[in-house]
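Changelog entry: the Hydroxymethylglutaryl-CoA lyase record was regenerated in this release. Current contents:
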Amino acid sequence: MAVDDRGPAGAEHVEIVEVGPRDGLQNEAKVLSVDDRIAMIDRAADAGLRRIEAVSFVNPRRVPQMAGAEEIMKGVRRGPDVSHIGLVLNRRGLDRAVEAAVSEVNVAVPATDGFSVRNQGSTVDAMLDTLADIDRALEGTGIPLSVTVSTAFGCPFDGEVSTERVVEVVRRIADTSAVEIALADTIGVGVPGQVTELVGAVAAVVGGRALRCHFHNTRNTGYANAWAAAQAGVRVLDSSVGGFGGCPFAPAATGNIATEDLLYLLHRSGLHTGVSLSAAAALGDWTGARLDKEPPAYLGRAGDFPA
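Regenerated structure tokens:
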């Protein structure tokens, strides 16, 4: 089967959720302008990315890199085939997201109290109550809800996280109208065997919802984990152009897996994404130039194969 820039034609499809404009930028020392962030989002759409985590409705005093969410949503190029996702952590954030007309609301619910209290100022149980309130408030808006279970593979404060704990949190999320549930390796501690086990256990309780995975490459296992997820049947994966990213509230957290490197892995393995590898690599370089740092991704340096 021939492999082109967007994956083998007619092959099984894997959806890529581009998280660079939010998760990719939120931990960077340099704060990009609203105009640069709009350009980044629009260029991602031009590359073929159809779901883009564009903004975060958090307190800009805590995360200044995410200031200007409303201005960005006003400035991005809208289209019926591109979903602009807004991250929401509380009811105030939801009200802002609805007013800004995001395409999709994503709520992060940690699997551990240690991370939840430090990152979001509440326990996991309290966050699940907040999620239920957000879910009720979204009724009638037409905006779909997705939920990310952060620290699903390990916590910087509470240590190991059991599969049973993650399943318990997912089971409570499944009581909402969420159309998709994501498992996030927030600090990049997971390994492929753990991915296989956790995906299998969670699949039994998601109630037919789409399952998504989010990996960081902190310990150089992110791409192996992404492949393990794909092998386990996951067909939605997060990544960030250039491989930028990290959490300001997770010590030593480093970048997300890079979109361009993930595309190479998936395309050469016979899966289709519909995303241009060359355009994604160019956007990773463009983003790095604006952040004044070299992208962690390799494709921008090594290039595709065959050339």
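Residues 113 and 123 are 5 Å apart (CA to CA).
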